[in-house]
Each structure stands twice: as structure tokens, then as C-alpha cells.
Design goal:
10 helices, globular, binds oxa(dethia)-CoA, four-stranded mixed beta sheet, five-stranded mixed beta sheet, alpha/beta, Peroxisomal Thiolase, Chain A, domain 1
């Protein structure tokens, strides 16, 4: 039996930081409102150079370095992003070009904030079947580029960044299981109208649009169910989890899940206060932070979860 093991992690954050205080000068909001409703205090905002392929490349390089590999050792690149640099080529091809390698398959998947968990699952299937040995999996988004900075109900929520892992085939776990779901009936709760010329309907703007309360309600229930599913599939109880690495959208959603799992918050990796919601990058960036600061150690059991517009959601149980 083959497993996929995380050999190395990496991340990239844009240089520019925008605090709640700064936002409150341009839209009618306060630091107090944002912190109490979301836990967010600041977010990083990409500049023109810091596109998804740029951020993904730098996160990928750090993951390769941590894995002790170089770009030529990769057999496949999967990029989870909803904010590609271009209509085409896909972001994974642009990242491959930046890495200076050719020939290996490179493709994007568009699964909003659940993108990294989905990409991890796809990569895991290739490795388990023996088709591919080493895969660079990147979660990256620059949602601030499709954020209406005059809409206080959304502009306070998002940030930009990239996270990456290098996965490699191994005899021991590794990824224990991944669990993916979607419900397209919820398509109007969180969406971005097309940004292709002419495709936005009259009165639509190419910005992210969200029914916050509907997303909140759905997220809490869906995440509780999917983590229970992941634990049951591995005959594990909550007490086996060393670290919960949740999607970083709202501290209240994270806290609700931790309470359900009877996990104290010091077993939960939280970055939402400094990163805000970075969509597909949120889980791999949190993972990388906790690996690099020494909280996550080899042999620890990790539970990852994410949910995004679709709705799409999923979880992964991993022995690091
Ligand atoms: O990645 C997955 C996607 N995202 C999520 O998971 C987000 C899920 N949803 C949420 O996190 C929360 O629903 C929000 C943080 C978006 C909103 O929190 P809420 O407690 O659900 O607030 P609300 O939407 O019910 O708004 C309450 C009030 C409204 O005023 P009225 O109608 O009660 O007078 C809003 O207009 O807060 C107002 N409001 C704001 N006030 C100050 C909305 N945004 C702001 C703001 N500053 N930035």
C-alpha cells in the first residue's frame, strides 16, 4: 500500500499589509466590528507583480527547499486557485515556466476556498495508484483583486497569499483519507460573476458577492459533518487529533468547530487574525506556519478542513 507523505511545506505573503484601522478610513467600519464578527485584524494585499503564479512559485520554492528537493524532482504540479493570472494558460503552467522545468503535467483546479483540500485529494489519488511519485500542490488566491473596496460587507474579509506542499509516495502514512463534497444549489450564496468581457449581466459587477449569514450557517454544519466523516472513516476519536488546521474565514466558525471537537484553541492553528480569508491559500499557509514554528512535529495527526463558494467543502486526515 502506498501513501502520500508531506515532505515539505512553504508559503508566501504579499508585502503590503492593510490593517482594520486603515480600512476604517475608506469604508464605514471599525476595528471593533471586524474583530468581534470575524477575528480579522489585518490582511496582506498583492501588488501587480504578486500574481497567483508569482506567489505560488515562491511558496513552491520554499516547499521544495524544505523537502530537500529541486524543481526537476517534481512529476506533477497542481494549483488550486480561483484567481488565475490569465484566462489561459493555466496558473500551474505559468508556475512550471517560472520553475524552469518542462514536460510534467501541470493543471489548475477551481474550487474556491476548498481548493487546497481538493487538490490534495487529487494528488493523493495519483500517488496511491503509483502513477506519480512526487507532486507540488499549491493553494493560492488573490481575491482582493476581485473585491469591491467600497463594499464593507466583503472588503474587510479577504486577503492574498499562497501555500504549498511537496507530496511524495511513501510506505507509511501520510495522508490517511480525504473527503470531498459539493452542493451546487447554493451557487447564489457566494459567487463572483464572470470577469470575461461581456459576461457580467446588467447591474452585475465582477466582484465577490456573498450572503454572509447563509454562508456562516452552512459552513458550521458542513464542516462539523465532514470532520466527523473523516474521523469515522479512520476509526479515530477527536482525542487523536494533534492539530486542527481549519479554513481561515472567520474565528467564530473556527471556534464553533473546535468546540464541537472538544479541542482547546491551543490545538488549532489560527492565522485569520493576520491573513484574513485567503481562500485556497488559507489552509496550506496555516500548515506551513505551524510546521516552521515547530508546533507541528513529525508523527502528529492533522485534521484539515475547508469550505468555499459552490458550496464546496472537504477534510483531510494526515499523519505529518
Ligand atoms: O471562505 C468561506 C466564505 N466566507 C465565510 O465563511 C464567511 C461567513 N460569514 C461570516 O463570516 C459573517 O456572516 C460575516 C462576518 C460576513 C458577517 O457577520 P454577521 O454577524 O453575519 O453580520 P451581518 O451580515 O448579519 O451584518 C450585521 C450588521 C448589518 O447591519 P444591520 O443590517 O444589522 O444594520 C451590516 O450592514 O453589520 C453591518 N455590517 C458592518 N458594519 C460595520 C456589515 N459589514 C460591516 C462592516 N463594518 N465591515
Amino acid at each position: 500500500m502506498k501513501y502520500s507523505r508531506i515532505l515539505g511545506t512553504g508559503s508566501y505573503l504579499p508585502k503590503k499589509v492593510v490593517t482594520n484601522e486603515e480600512l476604517s478610513k475608506t469604508v464605514e467600519t471599525t476595528d471593533e466590528w471586524i474583530v468581534s464578527r470575524t477575528g480579522i485584524r489585518a490582511r496582506h494585499v498583492a501588488n501587480e507583480e504578486e500574481t497567483s503564479s508569482y506567489m505560488g512559485y515562491h511558496a513552491g520554492l520554499r516547499a521544495l527547499e524544505a523537502a530537500g528537493l529541486n524543481a526537476n524532482d517534481i512529476d506533477m504540479i497542481i494549483v488550486a486557485t480561483t484567481t488565475p493570472d490569465k484566462g489561459l494558460p493555466n496558473t500551474a503552467c505559468l508556475l512550471q515556466d517560472r520553475l524552469g522545468i518542462t514536460g510534467i503535467p501541470a493543471f489548475d483546479i477551481t474550487v474556491a476556498c476548498a481548493g487546497f483540500v481538493y487538490a490534495l485529494s487529487v494528488a493523493d489519488q495519483y500517488i496511491r495508484t503509483g502513477m506519480i511519485k512526487t507532486i507540488l500542490v499549491v493553494g493560492v488566491d488573490a481575491l482582493t483583486a476581485v473585491t469591491n473596496w467600497e463594499d464593507r460587507s466583503t472588503c474587510v474579509l479577504f486577503g492574498d497569499g499562497a501555500g504549498a506542499v511537496v507530496l511524495q509516495a511513501a510506505e507509511n502514512p501520510g495522508i490517511l483519507s480525504t473527503h470531498l463534497h459539493a452542493d451546487g444549489r447554493q451557487k447564489d450564496s457566494l459567487y463572483i460573476p464572470s470577469w470575461l468581457p461581456g459576461q457580467c449581466k446588467k447591474d452585475e459587477v465582477p466582484y465577490i458577492s456573498m450572503d454572509g449569514r447563509a454562508v456562516f450557517r452552512f459552513a458550521v454544519k458542513a464542516l462539523e459533518e465532514v470532520v466527523e466523516e473523516a474521523l469515522a472513516a479512520n476509526q479515530m476519536s477527536q482525542s487523536a487529533i494533534d492539530w486542527l488546521i481549519p479554513h481561515q474565514a472567520n474565528l467564530r466558525i473556527i471556534t464553533a468547530l473546535a468546540e464541537k471537537l472538544k479541542l482547546s484553541l491551543d490545538k488549532v492553528v489560527v492565522t485569520v487574525d493576520r491573513h484574513a480569508n485567503t481562500s485556497a491559500a488559507s489552509v496550506p499557509m496555516a500548515l506551513d506556519e505551524a510546521v516552521r514554528d515547530g508546533r507541528i512535529q513529525r508523527g502528529h495527526t492533522l485534521l484539515l478542513d475547508a469550505i468555499g463558494g459552490g458550496f464546496v467543502w472537504g477534510a483531510a486526515l494526515i499523519v505529518y
